[in-house]
Amino acid sequence: MGDIERFKNGPCFVAYCGLIPRKRQSGLRDQSLSITKAGQPLLRKYLYLAADVARQWDAEFAAYYAKRYSKGVHHNRILIALARKMALRIHAVLVRRARGTQAPAYVRRGPDGQPIERKAARTLILQQYSRKVLDQADRDPATTVPEKGAEAIENANEWPPCSDATRETSKPPSRSFVSPTSLKSNSSPHQEWQSIADILNRIAKRSDGL
Fold first, then answer.
1. Which pLDDT tens digit goes with each residue over 61-91?
2. For residue 149, what pLDDT band results from cuts at 50, 70 and 90?
3. Per-residue DSSP letters for 25-70?
């Protein structure tokens, strides 16, 4: 990595780690693609794995993961975003150390920004932000999950689950098939519908007669 001060800011360090999206730009479009994967693959792998562990113990990371996961974002994409956040923290600590300034002690905080103990943070994550709770919320709309609970309850009220009896009574009335010939004004309402095979057979018989 070398001298940490050679990076102008945190985003430059993140770009060195290869955790920023590639860009495809034109005069009318600014499209973000997958990450660049620049720099050392081993460094990027360690940041990815560290982010996966951090979301299980850091309530801020867990809340961010739950918010994105409840919106349907893939697990790997969320971990890459968390690895980017972790790279910014690492850059801040290394810059302070290089400048001779003592870095502040790590303080574990909850989603509200207030300090929280390690065990309390783990309990909060298991109860509100774990994958099990998030997946259960997708199956059961009445389950309340932060960042998703209000939307789930609203959807449950709008589309209540129906029983078998409700399904039987709520079936739409069956529609009778109306042939295109019956739509013509000069055709009889009692004219029978004829298949294409019958019409082709009739044409073939006429051709044989000629």
1. 999 999 999 888 999 999 999 999 999 999 9
2. very low
3. E-SS-EEEEEE---S-HHHHHHHHHHHHHHTTT-HHHHHHHHHHHH
The position carrying tokens 């850059």 is 91
What number of CA atoms fall less than 13 Å from residue 67's CA on the CB side? 10
The helices-and-strands tally (H runs, E runs) of the chain is: 9, 2
Res 29 pLDDT > 70: yes
CA distance 170 to 5: 68
| 176 belongs to a structural domain | no
Judged against a pLDDT cut of 90, whether residue 164 lies above it is answered with no
User: Do the beta carbons of residue 86 and residue 47 sit within 8 Å?
Assistant: yes
Q: What is the mean pLDDT of the segment spanning 28-48? A: 86
Domain-located, residue 190: no
Is 167 part of any domain? Answer: no
Please name which of 2, 98, 94, 85 lies closest in space to residue 47, comparing C-alpha atoms. 85
In the chain, how many domains are there? 1
Is 153 within the bounds of a domain? yes
| Torsion, CA 95, CA 101, CA 105, CA 107, rounded to 10 | -60
Tokens of 5: 């001060």
What tokens appear for 152 in the block?
């789930």
Which domain range does residue 8 map to? 4-159
